[in-house]
Amino acid sequence: MERPSAVDRVLREAAPHEIFDVLRALIERRHHAVTVELLMADYAMTKLQPVGVLPRTRTPVPVHDSAAGRAFGTQEPHCVQDGSASTVTVHLPVSVRGDRLGVLSVTLPAGEDGLREDARDDLQQCADALAHAIVVAERDTDLFLQARRAERLTLAAEMQWQLLPGRASARPEYSIGAQLEPAYAIFGDCFDWSTSADDLTLTVSNGMGEGIDAALLTNLAVNALRNARRAGLSLADQAFLADQAVYGQHQGRQFLSTLLLRFHLPTGNVEIIDAGSPRIWRLRREVIEPIELEAQMPLGMFEDTSYRSQHFTVEPGDRLLFISDGVYDALSPSGEKYSLHALARAITSTRLLPASQVPRTMLQELLGHRGSGPAADDSLVVCLDWHGRPAAD
Prior knowledge:
The chain has helices at 5-13, 19-31, 67-74, 117-137, 143-147, 155-163, 211-230, 235-250, 325-328, 339-349, 358-370; strands spanning 35-41, 47-50, 61-62, 78-82, 87-96, 99-109, 168-171, 174-181, 189-195, 199-207, 256-264, 269-275, 279-284, 287-290, 310-313, 319-323, 379-386. It is an alpha+beta fold.
């Protein structure tokens, strides 16, 4: 059997649009596979879309109530035996640092004992290598981005999704999950994160306006924050410079509500600036409570606004939820706000789910509250589970 490093070498040498094709050929040769299929999670996280020649000819697989969806949800390999065909299909999660991209499904001739453990482990290594290769390849090919689309994105949504760092991230100290809705027509809500040896910087934004105007505003603000962060400036200076950039462009006619947070990974100390909204909720030992902060001016509302940092501490086991106005203020058909009570129920009902699954589930519950009518605003949920830094050996 070839060494696992051979998979990485084959993927590195392949053209960006051919990485799945060469991996499929390698798996067919190495394991005598009957079929090898790559399914990419769509933007709404409700379907797994087959990767193939466009336009697609194969039917998407639902994330819920499917074997491949089970592997996607649990992030563990899932095997299905077919006695009549004498085959076994193993569905393997394709993920990068907690960000769930899709599922690799491999059908093999069934042995007497089903799928051998060493074969399953080797296939998972192939899936892991493919995940990293996809992230790199997306700089040079549209194949995988096109495969994720269950329908056409609006131009504003195209701009927003390209701005995001991913939809999940994980390190020993924390796990993050995030989702935006309506996935194919979002415009102003956004999130961003960056990590270093000892810090996690997280921003959650709610831009005013609709369509292209909102997307342009958010792009300006997020890139201004990134520019300041990458220059090594303090959190307050990051807010100040982004505020200047937005005000200089729009003169207060458009502005952006933003939370800026910096988590100190060794201690759990959190530095935060509340420049407007969204809201933060904390689940600690089964108790749900809002984190009250001094609200300061949104970015770009006034010229030369000065921002002040506040502090709080997270403990291992804490869950933080960042909720935009599109969630909190959503109305039912009878005019009832989603607000406190329904939100608390949603936080409680999702408490056992991993952070990567919480936003999608909460937004599905919001849809049930709102009914089938069009959303008055786009909606954002970011979930952060704090584990704390593991003790040194």
